Amino acid sequence: MIIVIGAGQAGLAIGRELRRAGHDILLLDAHHRIGESWRRRWDSLRLFTPASLSALPGMPFPGPGHHYPGKDEVAGYLQAYAARFELPVQLGTTVTELRRGANGGFEVATSHGTLTADGVVVATGPFQLPHVPDLPLPPEIVSLHSADYRNPAQLPDGPVLVVGGGNSGMQIAAELAATRPVTLAIGERQPVLPQRICGLDVFTWLQALGLIRAPAAGRLGRLVRDHDPLIGLSPRGLRRLGVRIVDRITAVDGARLRTATGQAITASAVIWATGYRSDYRWIRIPGALAGGFPVHSAGISPVPGLAYIGLPFQRNRGSALLDWVGEDAALVAAAHTAPLRTPS
Question: What superkingdom heads the lineage (predicted)?
Fold first, then answer.
């Protein structure tokens, strides 16, 4: 038996590959519905990849190929994918500890008891613990991480400060600018690519140029990782929408926030689009982690029988993207050392 921890896009992709290879599997997921982590994102979220570049292996994404799916469409697709390939998913099950078991196997402690496995694939994804800087705000200012933001209606009237210049911060700032004054605080600037170039989606070009599959450890892969671009929206485009762009927020001064250069920001609400932190403390196996992060080569752990899928730049830029995670899944399934089930 191989247990896959996580039933998001990466978990479903590896689940299908392992079944095709003849393994008995069980997928565990803390949510009560497949695709729930997508459903919980903000309402207007859309993929940066069109439907034609947003499919897991064996099942095209429904709809026109040029369409950019919304988050609920992605959730529905994942649910349909699990059903189509009859993947065994145990929902509402939180994994609290992964440890070595008897005879070189594994014990997976969960909210519903302990399971045993010959092998384990960790597919928990990059979005684990929302990160909010340690800047306590006065109680009159509403504070939300982007993980908890849904739409403008949940915010009070008045100006909003969005902190974080990644794709999430850009999208949320643009949405809010239609109904209220918005300030966007950006730390390090990122390069920007248009969504479409010469009539083709930018990911079509990135794939054709070899940037999606460039090995993460190589020179080109490191360049892609160190300069991962924004897609579509840019600070210049947000300024045209009326968004004020400032530098990094570093302090709170009474009812106002201050930037590194001393600019004062007044806001009725702050949305922290400041990313996530990984949390692998529940993996309690000697040699599995270093500095709190998985030790692996292309997803394969030095611990026999343990593997990972869906890590950012696990092998390349595509490792955490819908249309390319299946390539990693095929390699992890092929390299997995858990024994095949006995034919019935």
Answer: Bacteria
Per-residue pLDDT of the chain (344 residues; tens, 9 = 90+): 999 999 999 999 999 999 999 999 999 999 999 999 999 999 999 999 999 999 999 999 999 999 999 999 999 999 999 999 999 999 999 999 999 998 889 999 999 999 999 999 999 987 789 999 999 899 999 999 999 999 999 999 999 999 998 999 999 999 999 999 999 999 888 889 999 999 999 999 999 999 999 999 999 999 999 888 899 989 999 999 999 999 999 999 888 999 999 999 999 999 999 999 999 999 999 999 999 999 999 999 999 999 999 999 999 999 999 999 999 999 999 987 444 444 33
Domain tally, the chain: 2
User: What per-residue string of b and e applies to 313-341 under the rule 16 or more CB within 10 Å gives b?
Assistant: bbbbbbbbbbbbbbbbbbbbbeebebeee
- Spatial separation of the C-alpha atoms in residues 50 and 323, rounded to whole Å: 10
Q: What residue type is 118 in one-letter code?
A: D
Q: What is the CATH number of the domain that holds 74?
A: 3.50.50.60
Same domain, 144 and 259: yes
DSSP secondary structure of 182-202: EEEE-SS---EE-SEETTEEH
Contact 287, 176 (CB under 8 A): no
CA 30, chain centre distance (Å): 16
How does DSSP classify residue 78? H
Select from 69, 284, 45 the least CA-distant residue to 174: 45
DSSP for residue 28: E
Are 55 and 98 in the same domain? yes
- Do 262 and 136 lie in a common domain? yes
Q: What is the C-alpha to C-alpha distance for residues 171 and 201, in angstroms, rounded to an integer?
A: 18
Please tell me whether residues 15 and 139 are part of one structural domain: no
